Amino acid sequence: MTVLEIARLQFATTTIIHFLFVLLTLGLVTLLVVLQTTWAITKKPMYERQTRFWGRLYVINYFLGIATGVVLELQFGTSWSGLSHYLGNVFGAPLAMETIIAFFLESTFLGLWIFGWGRLNRWVHTALIWLVALTAYASVFWVMVANSFLQHPVGYDKGADGVIRLTDIGALLSNKSLVMALPHVVFAAISVGGFVMAGISAWHFIRRTQEVEFFRKSLRLGVVTAAIGGFFVVGFGYAQYGFVADLQPTKFGDDAAKAAAVADFTARFGPGDYNLPAYASTALGFMILIGNLLPMVMFAIPLFFRDWIIRWRFPLYLLLLAIPLPFLAASLGWLFREGGRQPFAAYGLLPLQDAVTPGGSAGAMLTAYAVFTTVLVALAVTDWVLIARAANRGPVDPAPDALTPLA
Fold it and tell me: Transmembrane region positions (predicted)?
C-alpha cells in the first residue's frame, strides 16, 4: 500500500469510529432534555430517575467520545499537513470553533450538570442540560461547516502561493452543501438515540423487569423519537440529490454533467479516475436500503395500546436487534459523502496527493495507523462494555452526586 492509501484508510477508520460516538451523544442529550424538562415541570420522581439512568449512559459515551475526537484531530497534523497548509485558513476556522465549544463550553456545562444534582435549583439544573444540548448542536454545526467546505469550496481566495484564504464568512455559513446535510446528520443522531433507548428498554422487558412503568415510558419515548428521526433523516436524505448533482456532478450528475466535470478536472489536474468510486456507490445503495427501513419503527406505536408490544414480545426482539441499524446506515452515508468527492481532499480544488503529508514512508504511516486504530478500538470497546453494563443494571437510584461513569 502507498502512503496515500494508508492515510486514507486511517482517516476513514478514525472518522467512522468517532462518528459513532457523536451520533449517540447527540441523540441521548436530546432525549435527556425532554426527560429532565418534563421532570422540572411535573416534579414526578419517575422522570428524575429516567434522567439519571439515561444520563449515566450519555456521560459514559461523551467522555470516551471526546478521547476519540482528540485522535481524529491529530491526523490533520500528522497525515494531512498538505490540507492544513493549503486550506487551513478556511477549514481550520470552523474546526477551531468546534474545539472551543466542545472542549470548553459543552464540557463545562456538562460538568456542572453532573455535579449539580441535589445542589442546584431544579430549573437551574435543567437549564444546564439545555446548554449542554445547544452546545452539542453548535459543535456539530461547525464540524459540518468545515466538512461542507471540503465538499463544495466557497468563500475563499487563492493567493499566488497557492494557499487558500477565507474572504466571505457568509458564503461559508450558507454553503449549499451544508443546507440539507446538517439536518440529515442531526436527525440521524436523533434516530440513533431513539433506537438505543427503545432497544435497551425492550431488553429489560425481555428479561421481565420489575421496573415496568419506568421502561414502558422509556420504550414509548424511544420508539416515537426513532420514528420521527427516521422519517426526517430519509426526507432530508432524498432532498440532497438535487443539490449534490449540481455541486458534485461526478457523484450524482447525469452523463453529460459527469463528462464535462471529468474533462475540466483532467485539463486542470491531469489524467485520473474522477468518477464515483465503486465502494461509495455500494455504500449509498446499502444506506438507502437500511434508511428506508428505519421509519418502519412507527408501526410499533399502535402496539402500545394495552401493552401489546410488551405482551407479544416479538416486537421487543425486533427493537433490540434494530439498535445497530441506524449506526450502520449513518456510517455508510458518511462513506458515500466522503468517498464521493475523491480523488479530491476539497472537491475540484485540492487533489489528495497534494493534501497528504509529503516525505512520509509507508512503514511509518502504517505504524501510525496501527497505533491510532488500536487506541480507537480500545476506546470503542470500553465504551460499549461500560454502556452495556450500566444499561443491563437498570435504574439503581444513585446518590444525588453520583451520576458519573464509574457510579
Answer: 16-41, 53-72, 92-115, 127-150, 185-206, 218-239, 278-304, 316-336, 366-387
Residue range 80-123, pLDDT digits in tens? 888 888 998 998 889 888 888 877 888 899 999 999 988 899 99
Which cell numbers in the block locate residue 119? 445542589
Integer Rg of the chain from CA: 22
In 3-state terms, what secondary structure has residue 209? Answer: coil
For residues 291 and 328, give the distance between their C-alpha atoms in angstroms, rounded to a whole number.
9
Contact (CB, 8 A) for 150 and 91: yes
How would you class 305 by CB atoms within 10 Å of its CB: exposed for 0-12, middle for 13-18, buried for 19 or more? exposed
Please tell me the distance from the alpha carbon of residue 66 to that of residue 37, in angstroms, as a whole number: 26
pLDDT band at 399 (very low <50, low <70, confident <90, very high): very low
- Least Cα distance to 395 among 212, 270, 122, 128 occurs for 212
C-alpha cell at 235: 426526507
Q: Which residue has the cell 482528540?
A: 70
Query: How far, in Å, CA of 247 to CA of 175, rounded?
Result: 10
CA-angle at 33, arms to 32 and 36, nearest 5°: 75
Rounded to two decimals, the pTM is 0.90
How many whole angstroms separate alpha carbon 340 and alpha carbon 32?
Answer: 35
Q: What does the DSSP 8-state code read for residue 406?
A: T
Task: Give the whole-angstrom CA distance, residue 354 versus residue 344.
Answer: 9
DSSP 101: I
- State the DSSP code for 230: H
